[in-house]
Design goal:
The chain has 56 helices and 4 strands. It is mostly helical and about 1350 residues long. Helix 51 runs parallel beside helix 54. The protein is flat, with a radius of gyration of 44 Å. The termini are far apart. InterPro entries: FANCI (IPR026171), FANCI_HD1 (IPR029310), FANCI_HD2 (IPR029312), FANCI_S1 (IPR029308), FANCI_S1-cap (IPR029305), FANCI_S2 (IPR029315), FANCI_S3 (IPR029313), FANCI_S4 (IPR029314). This is Fanconi anemia group I protein.
Length: about 1350
């Protein structure tokens, strides 16, 4: 055998080819293959031998070409067998490649078939010999003709056949990667390529996860030939499915305790990460691929996003040229997703039509979660995305750059939700990825410092969350926080408060941070800016609250706010209580200096001291002495002198201007509340003290406490005796803001009223229900009331200032107690004393008024003045108490009883209670949305058995709804004379707020809507404000129940029959579905109906847009051509039905004699919007007809017919009516009105608006008709047969001016009359055609 081999080698080295041929011919096929096999296995000289065989087998002879084919047929399986050394196999394949082009066509065909067969049966495992296949195919396609079956094929055709049969057959998973690699070298036509890519993508699911990245890499290289979109879609789709499967497995796995997972999560994530890297690398090299990738997402919006594609997008964003596009695309998708969700949640019609949208926020948060598995290339993008969301959608500054105080914490609008999502992404990113922490922290702090013009609440919230979730991590980069402290005195006060509150847990564990902060605050104390000094006071008060001195009484609320599970530091080892005490006293002495500063700074101190005392009661004596000595400055110690307070030192003058220097009432308030709290604590914690030190201390405390009480009692006595003249405030005093005397008197008045209020609260608490003390309290109130009446009267004369009554200084807790005892306390022993208060109607009224004022402040800013105002839990408790009292007062004492004889201008007590309830419900829904149940469950007004079960939220809510329904029904059944419009409006508003708590699927919701419809149908009061409230409630409920178009149609018919037709000769059929619509309320109803029309059009536009975005991806469907109305797409059907009913409703309104003004303009605007929507629908059908000829539904034809025969002609006559209405208004004015109109620029602006509305309608009608013509051509259905062109949009001759001109010429008035007759006739004719 070896001899054969040596012989072939030596002969091939020689010159004589003939001998070599002879020798080879002498060998049989078997011998030759054996020689080849042995040579290849030993690996020696095999290359030379094969060269020799080729040399001795000239391709020109049949024998030679057969021998060559034999060599190929034998060597290919030999190389695949895996028995050869790699280099030997590579050499053999290289040699065979060189000689392939010499093979004749039939041999090539056989060879190619051999490859295809081997692949089909899975013998191409190692893929070494596959390198040869492209060469074979290339050589094949160059052949002229080959016999195939019984006929002949060109080489190119034969190649196509082969590839087809190859892609249709089953591939062994092992050789998928080799085949994909191999096809890169094969010249393919676009169809072949598409066929191949589909095949490879189908093979994804059969491969092992680890084999996906190399295959993706090969596919991406292959995509250089084309099919880029298909490749990317396929890869993304595969991972989307894997993610879904993995998630489901996890869910079911948890419930079934299955340990086995078909896809381990970490493995899947690592594979995804690698694939993302491959794709990004490919996009860097091939920008065409990048363009295709982004274009794909732009077309489909967010429908195709998934955690994998989000991660991919964020990685692609690292390529500079795509960065901006990617973030714009993601931001757009996020906001659009939130908007769609909001639109769908607000409409039952849309919920029934479409499944809920996929939420992009979940996907993005999933991407953050998945990025833990080493996706470093995604994290940078996540940080950028988080900040770009927060920057773009954060709260905006209000008017004049002011920030809106205490913005609501719940994200409601799509932009707020997007901003919140940005914060979540950054917070999760911060927790999970160490490398990006520094950057996130730096960027957040930078924004806090630099964004002084716009609100930074969202960044403060994020910073606070970071501190709470990872305080120890934050301490590693505490230098960044210290840097931020340096800017404190230049930042807005709200930012400083938020920042200090956020870092507070860190100060407990980091000495250096605390020291840095104190240094900064000390400097700020002497800042030239008022805001800087206020910031210092804020900071120091916060430190006093949080560094407890040992031995402080633990008030129930005083849990120290080291709100972090990770802070495991023994506070007392570094901070012993003595150090804390020294530290706190030092701060207090610093704060005392502030008592000589501006009123604003003092005010902050007075508002903060009470909280400090409650948290840190050991500081009581220092604080009380500070307050006491301050109060003495303004107190008149001579017992016989009146008044007991010195008001002169409370003000200061600068030039002509007078300023408040000392907020005396707040000082007194702070002193009283601190005193009362201390006495209360001493009483509750008073075991007999043994320690002599303690006794000394207590004696000292008792000393100033009793002295203070004496002062307060003396003040009470003397304030009752003091007349207004003693304060230089009587009826003749001036209170105008213009003069310095007026300003001085106003300041005095506010201070005196404040002092009265504080003394009232002090005396009430001290009175312990004694009748005499309550009589003193009423005396105080009478003084207060007298002064407030003078103030009201004086301020009423001039221009009315914005806040009529100054904010009350009574605390929320006191008001809540006071209301309870006034209305609900039936204890026998207190009866006599309380009757003193109850008999003063003004006092009761004042109490309810203050309650309403406090609730309003809570609703607007999230907190109230006075003690406990910032404490949300206590505030909420007071709210609950007040709710139950106000509810009891309103339901048990009918309003008819209380103000029987008096027809007063001001609202009754019942009304005030009702207003309070409305404000409480609104506040609760905004500020404590998840505690509404708790609020309702405290309103124990039903003592009978019908009390609903606490657990059943809806039941309880509905129980109260029924109470208010009864009250409203009583109002409505009384007849119009006894009808109190204000009360009815308040009741409707309360019902609106409470009905939001009902689930639209519940039985109670249906009952609510039925009741509302019934009331609207039966009530015929001519009160437009009430009817507006009631109809708004009806619409807000109806939209969650079903589509409101049929309701709109009925209302439009009612409005038409009430207001009459634009053509006075036409008698409108009298019909009344809803009695609430009458002559008085018709205009209000019209505007409400039109706003609902706008909403319906929004939904229809949204649906058409959704269909449009789906249309391009749908392949033309051959069955579509025969589509009939019976099997029409549900969305298209719904859209046509909605628009059909809407057109009928508008047809009614267009014929109605509406009053000129806002009704007419709004109607014209809605008409032009309706035609624009119709045009959009027609454009959609043009798009559909392009892909599915003849897919026009009968419904659409009906809709077009309806618009042409009913609406368009009526529109033109309405335009004529509107214009003639304008003329008559202009002409029939008397001189006075003319003058007023000249002055009033608003009227001219209105006229401009009106003139715009009419051309807009005409333009939109013409656009609609233009596209109808296009659709008619495309669909071969004549839709224009329903359209009649109108003449009213041609220019019209002005009859009056023509008349004047003709009279000048020949004085013949007949022509003029005939002219007028003709002009009037035209619209009339049109109107009759219905």
């Amino acid at each position: 055998m070896k001899d054969d081999m040596d012989k072939i080698v030596s002969l091939s080295d020689g010159d004589s080819t003939v001998e070599l041929q002879k020798y080879l011919s002498s060998l049989s096929n078997d011998q030759l293959t054996t020689v080849l096999t042995n040579g290849a296995l030993k690996g020696k000289k095999v290359g030379t031998m094969i060269k020799g065989i080729f040399k001795g087998s000239p391709s020109s002879s049949t024998e030679g070409s057969t021998r060559r084919l034999l060599v190929y047929q034998h060597c290919i399986p030999l190389c695949e067998s895996g028995d050869l050394q790699t280099e030997v196999a590579a050499d053999i394949i290289g040699l065979l490649m060189l000689e392939t082009h010499t093979l004749p066509g039939p041999s090539l065909a056989k060879l190619a078939s051999l490859f295809v067969e081997a692949i089909k049966v899975g013998k191409m495992g190692s893929g070494k010999s596959l390198e040869l296949f492209p060469t074979v195919l290339t050589a094949l396609s160059a052949c002229e003709a080959l016999s195939y079956g019984k006929g002949e094929l060109s080489g190119e055709g034969y190649k196509k056949q082969l590839i087809n049969s190859l892609c249709s057959s089953r591939w062994d998973p092992q050789c998928v990667i080799h085949l994909t690699t191999m096809f890169r070298d094969v010249p393919l036509s676009s169809e072949e390529l598409q066929f191949l890519v589909e095949k490879v993508l189908r093979m994804f699911t059969k491969l092992d996860l680890q084999e996906i990245p190399p295959l993706v890499y090969q596919l991406l290289l292959l995509s250089a030939k084309g099919c880029k979109k298909q490749v990317l879609d396929g890869i993304i789709c595969y991972f989307k499915e894997q993610d879904v499967r993995q998630e489901e497995e996890q869910k079911h796995g948890e419930s079934l305790d299955l340990e086995v997972q078909s896809i381990p999560q970490d493995q899947l994530r690592h594979v995804e990460g690698t694939v993302i890297l491959h794709i990004v690398f490919a996009i860097r090299l091939d920008h065409e691929l990048g363009r295709e990738f982004l274009k794909n997402f732009k077309v489909t919006s967010y429908g195709d996003l998934c955690p994998f594609s989000v991660a991919l997008l964020l990685s692609v964003a690292r390529i500079q040229r795509y960065e901006e596009q990617v973030f714009d695309l993601l931001k757009g998708a996020i906001v659009k997703s939130f908007k769609d969700e909001q639109l769908q949640q607000g409409s039952k019609f849309l919920q029934d039509l479409l499944p809920g949208p996929c939420s992009v926020d979940h996907m993005i948060l999933d991407t953050v979660k998945n990025s833990v598995f080493g996706w470093d290339h995604v994290t940078q993008g996540l940080v950028q995305l988080g900040f770009s969301l927060m920057d773009a959608f954060g709260p905006k500054p209000g008017p004049f750059g002011k920030t809106i105080e205490g913005a609501s914490t719940i994200a409601r609008t799509p932009t707020q939700q997007a901003c919140k999502l940005g914060g979540q992404v950054l917070l999760q990113g911060f927790k999970m990825h160490e490398p990006i922490r520094g950057e996130i922290l730096e960027q957040v702090l930078n924004r806090l410092v630099t964004e002084t013009a716009s609100p930074v609440n969202h960044y403060l919230d994020l910073f606070s969350d970071i501190v709470v979730s990872a305080p120890m991590i934050l301490l590693e980069s505490s230098s960044k926080v210290t840097e931020t402290f340096d800017h404190l005195s230049y930042l807005p006060l709200t930012t400083v408060q938020g920042l200090l509150k956020a870092v507070q847990p860190l100060l407990k564990v980091s000495m250096s941070l605390k020291d840095a902060l104190i240094l900064v605050l000390r400097k700020a104390m002497f800042s030239s800016q008022l805001d800087g000094r206020k910031s210092a006071v804020t900071g120091f008060l916060m430190l006093l609250k949080n560094f407890k001195v040992l031995g402080s009484l633990a008030s129930s609320q005083c849990s120290q706010a080291a709100s972090s599970s990770q802070v495991q530091v023994d506070v007392h080892s570094r901070y012993n209580s003595a150090a804390n005490e020294a530290f706190c006293l030092e701060i207090l002495s610093g704060l005392r200096r502030c008592l000589g500063q501006q009123a604003d700074v003092r005010l902050m101190l007075y508002e903060g001291f009470y909280d400090v005392l409650r948290r840190n009661s050991q500081l009581a004596s220092s604080i009380m002495q500070t307050l006491f000595s301050q109060l003495k400055w303004y107190y008149e110690p001579e017992q016989d002198l009146l008044p007991p307070v010195k008001l002169e030192p409370c003000i200061t003058a600068l030039g002509d201007q007078v300023f408040l220097q000392e907020p005396l009432a707040h000082l007194l308030s702070c002193t009283v509340h601190c005193l009362l709290w201390l006495q209360n604590m001493r009483r509750s914690a008073h075991p007999v003290a043994n320690d002599s030190d303690d006794e000394d201390e207590e004696e000292e405390e008792e000393g100033y406490q009793s002295e203070l009480e004496t002062i307060l009692e003396s003040m009470t006595r003397r304030m009752i005796k003091s007349e207004l003249e003693d304060f230089e405030l009587d009826k003749s005093a001036e209170f105008s803001i213009g003069s310095s005397v007026g300003v001085k008197n106003s300041i005095y008045a506010v201070l005196v009223m404040g002092v009265y209020e504080i003394l009232m609260e002090f005396n009430f608490i001290k009175a312990n229900y004694s009748k005499n003390r309550f009589e003193e309290l009423i005396e105080l109130f009478n003084r207060y009331h007298k002064l407030s009446e003078i103030l009201k009267e004086k301020s009423g004369k001039g221009r009315v200032p914005s806040n009529k009554t100054p904010r009350s200084l009574l605390s929320l807790g006191f008001i809540s107690t006071l209301l309870t005892v006034l209305f609900r306390d039936s204890t026998q022993s207190r009866e006599e004393a309380l009757s003193v208060l109850r008999l003063s109607g003004e006092f009761v009224r004042y109490a309810v008024n203050v309650a309403v004022q406090k609730i309003q402040q809570l609703e607007e800013s999230g907190h109230t003045d006075g003690p406990d105002g910032q404490n949300t839990d206590r505030t909420f408790r007071f709210l609950c108490d007040m709710t139950s009292v106000l509810m009891w007062r309103y339901t048990n004492i009918p309003s008819a009883v209380e103000d029987g004889g008096k027809k007063e201008k001001r609202s009754s007590l019942s009304l005030l209670c009702l207003e309070g309830l409305l404000r409480i419900f609104t506040t609760c829904q905004q500020r404590f949305p998840d505690r509404m149940v708790q609020l309702l469950s405290t309103m124990d007004i039903a003592e009978d058995d019908s009390e609903p079960d606490d657990g059943n939220v809806t039941e309880m809510n509905f129980f109260y709804i029924r109470q208010f329904q009864r009250a409203l029904f009583t109002q409505l059944s009384g007849g119009e004379e006894e009808f109190n419009s204000k009360e009815a409006q308040l009741l409707v508003s309360i019902l609106t707020v409470l009905s939001r708590q009902l689930k639209p699927t519940s039985q109670q919701f249906v009952q609510m809507i039925t009741w509302t419809v019934k009331i609207c149908k039966e009530t015929n009061f001519e009160d437009s404000a009430f009817s507006k409230g009631l109809l708004s409630l009806l619409f807000s409920l109806h939209v969650l129940y079903k589509s409101p178009v049929s309701l709109l149609l009925e209302l439009c018919q009612d409005i038409h029959s009430q207001l009459g037709d634009i053509d006075q000769d036409v008698e409108v059929e009298k019909q009344s579905h809803f009695a609430i619509v009458n002559m008085k309320t018709a205009s209000t109803a019209t505007l409400l109906v039109l706003s609902q029309v706008d909403r319906v059009l929004d939904e229809v536009d949204w649906l058409i847009a959704k269909k449009k975005s789906q249309a391009p991806s749908d392949t033309p469907d051959p069955g579509g051509a025969t589509q009939t109305a019976g099997q029409q797409d549900p969305i298209e059907k719904a859209v046509t039905l909605q628009l059909g009913t809407l057109l009928t409703a508008l047809n009614e309104l267009v014929q109605t004699a509406l009053l000129p003004g806002s009704c007419t303009i709004t109607l014209l605007r809605e008409l032009s919007r309706t035609y624009t929507t119709l045009t959009t629908l027609v454009k959609y059908y043009i798009q559909v007809c392009a892909s599915q000829p003849g897919a026009l539904s009968a419904r659409l034809e009906k809709l077009v017919k309806l618009s042409g025969s009913h609406l368009t002609p009526q529109c033109y006559s309405f335009i004529t009516y509107a214009q003639s209405g304008e003329m008559s208004i202009g002409g029939a004015d008397d001189k006075k009105k003319k003058k007023r109109n000249e002055v009033n620029t608003a009227a001219s602006a209105k006229l401009l608006r009106e003139t715009k509305a009419i051309p807009n309608v005409i333009f939109s009608i013409e656009q609609y008709e233009k596209f109808l013509i296009t659709l008619s051509k495309k669909s071969k259905v004549n839709l224009m047969q329903y359209m009649k062109l109108s003449t009213s949009r041609d220019f019209r001759i002005n009859a009056a001016s023509l008349d004047a001109a003709l009279q000048e010429q020949d004085g013949t008035p007949e022509t003029n009359e005939s002219q007028e007759a003709e002009e009037k006739e035209e619209p009339k004719k049109k109107k009759r055609k219905q």
